[in-house]
Amino acid sequence: MASTTNVVKVGSRKSQLALVQTNTIINKLKELNPEYEFVVVTMTTTGDNILDSALSKIGAKDLFTRELELALEAGEVDFVVHSLKDLPTRIADTLVIGCVYKRDSEFDAVVMHPKHKGKKLEDLPENSVIGTSSLRRAAQLSRKFPTFKFENIRGNLNTRFKKLDEDEKYDAIILAEAGLVRMGWDDRIAQVLTSDECMYAVSQGAMAVECRAGDRKTLTLLSDIHHQDTAIACIAERAFLRRLEGGCSVPVCVSTKLSKTKLTLTGGVFSIDGKQCVLDTHSKDLPEEPANKKMATNGHLFAAIVPGNIDPALCHIAEEVGTELANLLLATEAANILAEAKEQTARAVMEEKARKEREMVEKTKQGEVTAE
Ligand code: DPM
Questions:
Q1: What digits encode the pLDDT tens for the residues 138-153?
Q2: High-pLDDT (> 90) share of the chain, %
Q3: Which atom of ligand 1 is found nearest the CA of 152?
Q4: Mutational test site, ligand 1, from 52, 53, 83, max ligand atoms within 8 Å of CB
Q5: Which residue, 81, 172, 176, 332, has fewest beta-carbon neighbours within 10 Å?
Q6: Do residues 188 and 214 touch, judged by C-beta distance below 8 A?
Q7: What residues have CB less than 8 Å from 127, skipping those under 6 apart?
Q8: What broad class of enzyme is this (predicted)?
């Protein structure tokens, strides 16, 4: 029988995508550590329960993560697997990102209504309706396709496919290619968008594992699957977003290039309607000789990510690339675009709250009427 000290409790949302991601990490860890036993504990998050509002209109950054983090802090689970793009750039200081797993596709993909089979976005008629609740996707694509209408679509991927295929509302929807592939829906991908067409979200396509900051045992397990190139790119992207104080509330996008000798980050800030945009690129050379990996980091985290087995000097450079690119943008019109977008989103959050309150009042009234 397995000794209880080798049992690791893993928290996960119940959605099919969350479970696929959790099992990918567990299977890899099992392969490397056959003596460990992993037990999955599933839970529901606020984000799972709010299905009628766009994410950006709910007004909390940790919608899909908070309940899982509370379970971590309470010791009910030992680690939690996330899509890194859903993990805020600032997390509780009792928690860390113990590893970033090798990135899958970072790009967005188009899924067409069956009646448009074989078409690309540019083949769709004027006034086509595109389903997405990502401000980033809507802003960028409305620049390329000014006649298209971008409509909110929520729910898990299964629900969205059903809405696309069965409601005659949407001509196409936009989703992350990584999620589609993980769910086995590759065959529905009509087109993968390049960075020229639609730059991706910070850390899109990368999974991350969150654990308690002081949990040596779990951190050691995770350090074996920490993927250097992915971590370096994601540290740069997250440092960029962190400095901009963005989140999914504003249209911010990135594109990262990493070679053996250079890290290049392109970042963009868009107005909500996509009419204004500022892009800039910043790069730094990487040291050829890996520095002493034992260099003391004094527990320094890089946008909440532990360096683990990765040379901290590389992590520092990545963090600088992100922060400096953000500073370059903040010195331009981008600062105003960003401030305006944040204000607009904050207003949308308030309006959404008011709408929901009215809805509650209406429902209560109706309840009273039927009760009579
Ligand atoms: C965040 C956004 C979306 C998710 C906003 C954005 C998409 C929202 C929507 C921050 N998180 O990308 O601009 O379309 O309603 C999410 C997905 C994945 C992780 C699904 C998706 C899977 C891919 C991955 C939702 N989070 O983007 O289609 O691991 O990156």
A1: 999 999 999 999 999 9
A2: 76
A3: 15
A4: 83
A5: 332
A6: no
A7: 147, 148, 149
A8: transferase
Residues 6+ away with beta carbon under 8 Å from 40: 10, 11, 12, 19, 22, 23, 26
Q: Give the pTM.
A: 0.92
Q: Each residue of 70-98: pLDDT tens digit?
A: 999 999 999 999 999 989 999 999 999 99
CA-based nearest residue to 96, from 283, 270, 238: 238
**Ligand 1 contact, 128 CB (< 6 A):** no
Beta strand 37-43 with 79-83 is unpaired
> 252-272: string of b/e by CB count within 10 Å (b at 16+)?
bbbbbebeeeebbbbbbbbbb
Phi, psi (deg, nearest 5) at residue 43: -150, 165
| The pairing of beta strand 207-212 with beta strand 252-258 | unpaired
Closest CA to 163 of 314, 52, 29: 52
Tokens matching residue 284:
């730094």
